[in-house]
Amino acid sequence: MCGGRGTRLDTHVEKPLFRVGDEPMVDRVFGALSESAVDTAYAVTSPATPETRAHLDAPCIETPGDGYVADLDAALADERVSTPVLTVAADLPLLDGPILDRVLDAHTGGSLSVLVPAARKRELGVSDDTTFWREGREVAPTGVNVVGETGDDAWLTEDVRVAVNVNTLADARVAEELL
């Protein structure tokens, strides 16, 4: 998923092309996907990310750019995509193949959300704008999910590789330190 506007990042570069460790975040994510058991990866772009689309050497699915959920729905409607499907946000520069394989191993059917404790994000010093309570614990979505036909399972982890989303320049500094 690399079609967001990235307004909180406060940069002139499209968010997926923002460099962490001297490499665009989207390239880091595609590198992680290529190291994993994932067979085929599609870049889900929007009108907000034309430079990202031009940059990528991967098949793209163009969405309207109406927000994450609407764009995800549009991508899932593409005839090339069938569920279950692993979805990954382009703002996760610490991802690698082994953590994605752990997510795939944790998936037992239906849909799976990968969550981190909100306290872990705060401990790392990264933004936690979206949190909610699940089973008595404040958690944050990571941007990694398996979308299936049914179900709403969750996998909770404190793993830094999925805990650090780069939404702000301060998040980018933390990611740089952890590389």
From TrEMBL:
Q: Which SUPFAM superfamilies match?
A: Nucleotide-diphospho-sugar transferases
For this protein, the record's Gene3D superfamilies field holds: Spore Coat Polysaccharide Biosynthesis Protein SpsA, Chain A
**InterPro entries, alphabetized:** MobA-like_NTP_Trfase, Nucleotide-diphossugar_trans
The signal sequence is: none
What sequence ranges are listed for the domain MobA-like NTP transferase?
A: 2-122
What's an example of a GO molecular-function annotation for this chain? Answer: nucleotidyltransferase activity
Keywords from UniProt, A to Z, are: Transferase
Name of the protein? NTP transferase domain-containing protein
Q: Which organism is it from?
A: Haloarcula salinisoli
